Amino acid sequence: MRRSALSLAVAFALILGLAACGEKMDPVNSAHEQSLTLMLDFFPNADHVGIYQALVQGGFAHAGLDVHVQTPSDPALPLKLLEAGKVDVAISYEPEVLLARDKGLPLVSIAALVQRPLTSIVSIGSKHIRTAADLRGKRVGDAGIPYQHAYLTTILQTAGVPAGSVKETNVGFDLVPAMLSGRVDATLGAYWNYEAIQLAQKNKKPNVIRMEQAGVPTYDELVLVVTRKTLAAKTDELRAFVQALARGYESVRANPRAGVGALLGSTTGLDPKLQLASTLATLPVFFPAAGKPWGWQDANQWNAYGSWMLSHNLISNAAAVADASTNELLAGQAPPLG
User: Fold this and answer.
1) Sign (positive/negative) of CA torsion 116, 119, 121, 125?
2) Which pLDDT tens digit goes with each residue over 15-50?
3) What are phi and psi of 92, to 5 degrees?
4) Helix, strand, coil abundance in the chain, percent, nearest 5
5) Residue 230 φ then ψ, to 5°
């Protein structure tokens, strides 16, 4: 889901850097480093903590890479810039990848940053919306994205709530402000690991309904995306990048405060308390099930989610789902054939 709802985070930002901890690796000679450009999905935040840990610790340089991280001016830009060849790798969302592929874009997801949906229905405690059944007679705000509407439809059907009993309102990018002002009773599009934590820190006692627990097929919220052309031309560099990134996230798991320090030391305007709480909450979904390498993408899960998108007419081409993701660059996986 596009990170439009993060606007509230900026309003309460503090400018503070924490010293990054952890042993730094010796970088290789920069003359031999291969350049890669990574476009984030939104402004730097706890979802990206492993990226900044890898940068600060020299993990990318040690792998022979000179990684340049860019922040989009518009959350809709990363896949467009990827298609245009302006960046090598973009962070996006599983539904957005399938939508782009449905339009014929030759994109493929090469690793999952976040293994579960972060998108949620969030409400403040005074509204007493603890389950999907409690949405009956309520006003739900979203950003007007078609698959958000499909999420709400699926959730209401699963809970046996008549769709006509719920008023859906497009509040644009003002998801949390619309809820706090009383314009809507709940929002669909806020993240349980960010906006909900922010509301809790402000004593709003938020209630959260997660997508995959309310009838929506699970999906990878954040993924690394490349074009097929780049995958073929830069296979070795991308493999080194993904595996260095895996080590960055493993380092964060071992020492979350150091990872947050790396994030805060690399950017300004972030609330340290929020970023640490968000990182700690997100740690479990940065990693796949035991026995699978970091970045693992379940093909059956992608197919199930793609089938759901097809059934809701969000995409029309079944070929958009086939081979939309690959694990070939992950640690311990076989190199591509041919």
Assistant:
1) positive
2) 233 233 333 333 333 447 899 999 999 999 999 999
3) -145, -160
4) 45, 15, 40
5) -65, -40
Domain spanning 119-213, CATH class? alpha beta
Q: Is the pLDDT of residue 335 over 80?
A: no
What's the CATH code, domain 3-116+219-320?
Answer: 3.40.190.10
Q: Who's near 290: CB < 8 A, 6+ residues apart?
A: none
DSSP bridge partners of 222: 114
Kindly report the three-state secondary structure assignment for every residue of 215-251: CCCCCCCEEEEEEHHHHHHCHHHHHHHHHHHHHHHHH
List, in order, residues 6 or more apart from 194 with CB less than 8 Å away: 5, 6, 9, 45, 46, 118, 274, 278
What does the pLDDT read at residue 28?
A: 38
Contact predicate 108/324, CB 8 Å? yes
Q: What is the mean pLDDT of residues 309-337?
A: 90
Q: CA-to-CA distance for 121 and 208, rounded, in angstroms?
A: 6
Burial class (CB in 10 A: 0-12, 13-18, 19+), 292: middle
Q: Within 13 Å, how many C-alpha atoms sit on residue 124's CB side? A: 18
Residue range(s) in the chain whose domain bears CATH number 3.40.190.10: 3-116+219-320, 119-213
- In the structure encoding, which two tokens stand for residue 262, read together? 């790396």
Sequence letter at residue 329: L
Share of the chain above pLDDT 90, in %: 86
In three-state secondary structure terms, 299 is helix
pLDDT of residue 3: 52
Please tell me the distance from the alpha carbon of residue 115 to that of residue 277, in angstroms, as a whole number.
18
CA atoms within 13 A on the CB side of 121: 32
Confidence of residue 157 (pLDDT cuts 50, 70, 90): very high
